[in-house]
Design a protein that fits this description.
Elements lengths: L16 E7 L5 H12 L4 E3 L8 E8 L6 H6 L2 E9 L1 E3 L8 E4 L6 H11 L1 E5 L8 E2 L2 E2 H6 L9 E14 L2 E8 L5 H12 L3 E11 L2 E2 L4 E2 H5 L3 H6 L13 E3 L2 H8 L4 E2 L5 E7 L6 E8 L2 E7 L2 H8 L2
Parallel strand pairs: 1-14, 3-12, 15-17
Antiparallel strand pairs: 1-3, 2-3, 4-11, 4-12, 5-6, 7-10, 8-9, 10-11, 12-13, 16-19, 17-18, 18-19
Helix pairs in contact: 3-5
């Protein structure tokens, strides 16, 4: 019997930045993250909030220094294209669940627009049972699969925009822009309830998260077809997740002190969030806030990370 060839171990390396992935349908967010992490041979990686396997679209993936700012993308407003099937409700609120009830669809565009108007702004939303939210250490979907319903407190979310993109019979496509923590499945169910015919989510595509867009994202297949050097060139700097924050630039001596965690005096109004740079054009140092004329560090890169990003 011939000897089995030795297994070649993947050598991990420090990789810093953010990759905008166009997640395919059927993949969990973690599966997509692990695939890209393997393609880049990255040591440290994390994603910025899950997309259900049913959903496609923008999934920012953070590597190395970029992982320090993943929470910013998680907290950012999100935009989606949501396709609803009117006239049917399901156990999960989407097409993966069993149909609970069907009703005839007898609605007008005016009724749909009026229902959308009722759901815009700040609303209270009850998270679905089929979600990853925890109850006593277990995700809710485990209870749901066992036929157990847990009482969930409602939470306040904001629907900034909810507009009709296309409507044909029982298929309705909406453009949604919402705050973090919004369940679009629940939004679809609420809309169906207002219309009196019921509805569930049949397709979902995330188009934006904060300042980053799916228009700049790359698919898994396209990424896999690149060389390793080309893959690394697809990485954006960590501050791309903070691109809509005001910028503060410090002189070299002030930047060095700021990187040690010291507050600095600045001539600027109070700001809840700012991105901070040294004197070099790409010398991103981290995130901070301004209060009472002081620049107060929140999340900083290390000097080694700053040097690594400058050398890219």
């Amino acid at each position: 019997m011939s000897a089995r060839p030795p297994r070649i171990k993947t050598v991990r390396r420090p990789v810093h930045g953010v990759l905008l992935l166009d997640k395919p349908i059927g993949w969990s967010s973690n599966d997509a993250l692990q695939k890209v992490k393997w393609l880049l041979r990255a040591e440290k990686a994390g994603h910025t909030g899950t997309l259900d396997p049913l959903a496609t679209g923008l999934l920012p993936l953070c590597f190395g220094a970029g992982t320090k700012f993943s929470q910013i993308s998680l907290d950012a407003d999100k935009s989606y294209l949501a396709t609803l099937k009117l006239g049917a409700t399901t156990t999960t609120g989407d097409l993966e669940g069993e149909v609970l009830e069907t009703r005839p669809v007898q609605v007008t565009r005016e009724q749909i627009e009026a229902a959308c108007a009722q759901l815009r702004g700040e609303i209270d939303q009850v998270p679905p049972m089929y979600s990853a939210l925890k109850h006593e250490g277990r995700p809710l979907y485990e209870y749901a699969r066992a036929g157990i319903v847990i009482e969930r407190p409602s939470r306040r979310v904001t629907i900034h925009a909810l507009d009709i993109i296309d409507w044909q019979d029982d298929r309705l496509t909406l453009s949604v822009r919402c705050s973090k923590g919004t369940y679009v499945r629940t939004l679809a169910e609420d809309l169906g309830r207002l219309l009196g015919c019921g509805a569930h989510l049949s397709a979902l595509r995330r188009t934006a998260a904060g300042p980053v867009s799916v228009n700049d994202a790359i698919s898994l297949d396209a990424l896999a077809a690149l060389t390793e050097t080309e893959r690394e060139s697809m990485l954006r700097p960590p501050d791309s997740l903070l691109a809509d924050w005001p910028e503060v630039r410090l002189a070299q001596d002030e930047a060095a002190r700021f990187l040690t965690g010291l507050r600095r005096r600045v001539n600027a109004p109070d700001q809840p969030h700012v991105r901070v740079y040294g004197p070099e054009p790409q010398a991103f140092l981290g995130g901070a806030h301004i209060q009472g004329g002081e620049l107060i560090p929140d999340r900083l890169l290390s000097p080694q990370e700053v040097s690594s990003l400058l050398s890219v």
